[in-house]
Write a structure and sequence with these properties.
The chain has helices spanning 3-10, 32-52, 68-73, 96-112, 131-136, 181-195, 205-209, 217-231, 240-248; strands at 15-22, 57-60, 80-85, 119-122, 141-144, 156-159, 162-166, 169-171, 198-204, 235-238. It is globular. 39% of the residues lie in helices and 19% in strands.
Length: 264
């Protein structure tokens, strides 16, 4: 490669975008009709991502037993399956012992089924106090700030090799009297490219299923523009696992002390 060509390449900034799709909700209290609506929107989302050739992290309650898992595995794309942690076993009311038991069970069953599960999406603000349990299960990426989708921050290391990736924006959009929310998300995505930063879009399938006609127009609008930047080499769309692997290649600035302790 000539030096002139090398200098030309260096002038471009590359942003990194994660798309995480939460396919499940808390398993309890779901009617048959609601379950069918969620199954329908899940199939539509999987088909949409495959059509746009966008690799996605799909979040489900139990990857080894989810109805969506076979559909996701059929894809030629390198999608990722992640575990959803809901309020039934994550958070202060559940306790550390139950959290450990449920996490170990889901991870073990997924890996016994041949699924490479390394990401976790809690429905609580933070599980940082249980990071040692995350480390023991060889998980490397966590979805952060699920209850604060307006926050836009770069990924942060909770422990060497374990990264929390905050949510930058959420779909579907909340109703607004002021302009187009999808255009606001798009401006932030293009800013990510200019600044060589990170952007994490969370898509809530259950919320989409509750909308009239299961409207995916905002998502498709964003995907068309995002893939155009991707195809020009200006944006890299990554799964959470891929992001954690990339970030972990950077050497730690200082050794970190062990945080491992008993689950009980």
């Amino acid at each position: 490669m000539s030096s002139a060509h090398h200098r030309t390449w260096q002038q471009y900034h590359v942003g990194h975008v994660n798309i995480t799709v939460q396919l499940d909700t808390a398993a309890e209290g779901r009617s048959i009709e609601r379950h069918q609506e969620l199954a329908t929107i899940s199939r539509q989302l999987i088909a949409t991502m495959n059509a746009e050739r966008v690799c996605v992290t799909w979040v489900v309650n139990d990857p080894a037993h989810s109805a969506a898992t076979p559909l996701i595995l059929k894809s030629s794309l390198e999608h990722e399956l992640a575990i959803l942690g809901d309020e039934n076993w994550v958070g202060p009311t559940a306790g550390r012992t139950r959290f450990a038991r449920e996490l170990i069970r889901r991870v073990a069953q997924a890996r016994a089924a041949g699924l490479h599960v390394t990401s976790f999406a809690p429905l609580v603000a933070s599980i940082e106090e249980h990071c040692d349990l995350i480390v023991k299960q060889h998980l490397t990426a966590l979805v952060g700030a699920l209850n604060n989708a307006e926050t836009s921050r770069e990924p942060r290391a909770l422990h060497y090799g374990v990264w929390e990736i905050p949510v930058s924006a959420r779909l579907p959009l909340a109703p607004s009297w002021f302009g187009s929310g999808k255009r606001s998300i798009w401006r932030r995505m293009t800013q990510t490219q200019r600044e060589a930063g990170s952007f994490h879009l969370l898509v809530d399938a259950a919320a989409l299923a509750a909308m009239p006609r299961h409207d995916l127009s905002d998502l498709r609008w964003l995907l068309r523009r995002l893939t155009a930047l991707r195809d020009r080499g200006l944006i890299r769309v990554e799964t959470l696992r891929t992001t954690a692997e990339r970030l972990s290649k950077v050497p730690a600035l200082s050794p970190q002390q062990s945080i491992l302790r008993r689950a009980g």
